[in-house]
């Protein structure tokens, strides 16, 4: 820039004198010099002066090359969102981590002793809002943003005695299971405000996906017999139906197309299948039974959508190795027509093989969660008693690696995400202030991220 200014001064000086040398035809007029000066000034702001020199004889002209401006790096597009607790009576923390670089972007305070985290995204949408349940009977909601301030975390207080155990945001409404009141609370707005409560016996979980016209609240009676209450999400009302499922239902998942919901019955080692189109228990193909028998104490599941498989983590008895059950769940489609000549594409029924347990894979002791890469290649299982993560190859249905996570002792929560050049697995523990990060290209620990508080759970904005 300084060189360009000095050169302009020289041009102005030469414009006021008679040029010398063999090129009088190239005399620069005063107006031409000023025009040239203005031209070069404009480009000098975003240019560098080349060392290349051209001209006639000993008279040289500069070559100015424009370059693209260099600005700040773009914001990360994918986050790991972790919550941690600092004690039973003190505010908790939410931490945003850049997935591409595993750097902590921001930490904000949230409610007292948070114990449950959910994001509003799913496998088809990017999460934009987070929600937590806290020990002081409050609900926090916050934007997933690297500029989040503690003062921007919104808070809602639930009714006395609610003892909420899970929260599920779905469209315009947010649903909270309140076993202390035997109710499902529905909230609306920003921050969420209680609108209604609906009676559900000992509610535990709400099963659904974004934009589903019907979702399901799970609960059980005093004897542990499981029941499911369907909710119409358009009108925000239960439809009056009660669907029986297995013993002690604790968790559930719904397919992205809303057509099937799977309820995990921890008390009898089964998975109940609900046809959400008919709003009844699904009628499985010949030779298959509903509920589907899996391992001991199923408590978490995830989909391998590209494989039409459901991957279920079975906790076992807590002292011997648990297992993972892999269930085939294809519906009728153009590719399944040869084996299912009665398939109706507008109202899909189960394809042949639906409900088949393809494999039962032994993993570590007391597995707590399973997460599946969306490309369908592998599943990751967090084993609490072993402080390990088991890696299952879904092509062979075998364990291909067992990864120790000593920095995150007795882990109980994981979140997985695909990516380039590597996907990531995030692992938290209620006994550790560290979150372990595993690379999926090498299936090895990449780094450890300090959370300041003890880890409660972690979610990713894009799976």
Describe this structure in words.
The protein is 6% helix and 48% strand. The protein has 463 residues and is mainly beta. It has a domain at 2-66. A hairpin with a 4-residue loop joins strand 20 (260-265) and strand 21 (270-275).
User: How many strands, what sense, and barrel or not for the largest sheet?
Assistant: 5 strands, antiparallel
From the helix content, strand content and strand pairing, which structural class follows? mainly beta
Rg to the nearest angstrom?
Answer: 31 Å
Number of helices: 2
Count all strands and give the number: 36
Low-confidence stretches: 1-72
Helix content: under 10%
Which outline best applies? globular
Distance between the amino and carboxyl termini: 48 Å
Taken as a percent bin, the fraction of beta residues is over 45%
What average pLDDT do the residues reach? 86
Oligomer: single chain
Short descriptors:
463 residues; mainly beta; five-stranded antiparallel beta sheet; 2 helices; 36 strands
Strand-helix topology:
Blueprint: H1 2-15, H2 30-44, E1 47-56, E2 59-66, E3 79-85, E4 91-98, E5 103-112, E6 114-119, E7 129-134, E8 138-143, E9 154-157, E10 166-170, E11 173-178, E12 183-188, E13 193-199, E14 205-207, E15 214-220, E16 225-232, E17 237-238, E18 243-247, E19 249-254, E20 260-265, E21 270-275, E22 280-281, E23 292-293, E24 298-304, E25 309-314, E26 321-328, E27 357-365, E28 367-372, E29 378-383, E30 388-393, E31 398-404, E32 413-417, E33 424-428, E34 434-439, E35 444-450, E36 454-460
Antiparallel strand pairs: 1-2, 3-4, 3-36, 4-5, 6-7, 7-8, 8-9, 10-11, 11-12, 12-13, 14-15, 15-16, 16-17, 16-18, 19-20, 20-21, 21-22, 21-23, 24-25, 25-26, 26-27, 28-29, 29-30, 30-31, 32-33, 33-34, 34-35
């Amino acid at each position: 820039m300084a060189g360009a200014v000095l050169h302009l001064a020289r041009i102005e000086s030469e414009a006021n004198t008679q040029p010398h040398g063999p090129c009088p035809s190239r005399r620069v007029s005063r107006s031409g010099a000023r025009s040239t000066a203005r031209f070069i000034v404009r480009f000098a702001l975003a240019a560098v002066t080349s060392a290349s020199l051209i001209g006639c004889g000993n008279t040289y002209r500069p070559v100015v090359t424009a370059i693209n401006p260099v600005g700040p790096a773009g914001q990360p597009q994918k986050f790991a969102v972790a919550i941690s607790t600092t004690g039973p009576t003190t505010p908790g923390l939410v931490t945003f981590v850049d997935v591409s670089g595993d750097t902590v972007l921001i930490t904000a305070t949230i409610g007292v002793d948070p114990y449950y985290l959910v994001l509003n995204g799913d496998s088809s949408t990017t999460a934009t809002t987070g929600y937590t349940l806290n020990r002081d009977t409050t609900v926090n909601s916050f934007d997933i943003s690297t500029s989040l301030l503690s003062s921007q975390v919104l808070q809602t207080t639930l009714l006395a005695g609610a003892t909420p155990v899970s929260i599920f945001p779905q469209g315009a409404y947010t649903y909270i299971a309140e076993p202390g009141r035997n109710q499902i609370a529905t909230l609306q707005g920003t921050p969420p405000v209680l609108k209604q409560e609906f009676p559900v016996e000992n509610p535990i979980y709400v099963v659904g996906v974004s934009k589903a016209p019907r979702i399901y609240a799970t609960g059980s009676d005093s004897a542990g017999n499981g029941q499911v209450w369907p909710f119409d999400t358009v009108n925000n009302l239960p439809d009056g139906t009660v669907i029986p499922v297995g013993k002690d239902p604790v968790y559930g998942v719904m397919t992205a197309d809303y057509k099937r919901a799977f309820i995990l019955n921890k008390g009898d080692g089964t998975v109940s299948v609900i046809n959400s189109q008919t709003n009844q228990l699904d009628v499985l193909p010949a030779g298959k039974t509903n509920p589907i028998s899996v391992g001991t104490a199923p408590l978490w599941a995830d989909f391998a959508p590209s494989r039409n498989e459901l991957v279920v983590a079975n906790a076992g008895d807590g002292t011997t190795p648990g297992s993972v059950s892999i269930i085939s769940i294809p519906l009728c489609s153009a590719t399944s027509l040869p084996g299912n000549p009665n398939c109706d594409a507008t109202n899909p029924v189960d394809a042949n093989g639906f409900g088949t347990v393809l494999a039962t894979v032994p993993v570590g002791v007391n597995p707590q969660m399973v997460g599946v890469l969306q490309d369908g290649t592998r599943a990751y299982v967090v084993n609490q008693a072993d402080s390990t993560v088991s890696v299952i190859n879904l092509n062979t249905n075998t364990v291909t690696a067992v990864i120790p996570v000593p920095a995150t002792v007795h882990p109980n929560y994981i979140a997985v995400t695909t990516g380039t050049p590597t996907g990531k697995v995030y692992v938290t523990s209620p006994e550790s202030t560290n979150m372990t990060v595993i690379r999926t290209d090498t299936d090895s620990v990449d780094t450890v991220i300090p959370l300041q508080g003890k880890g409660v759970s972690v979610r990713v904005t894009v799976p």
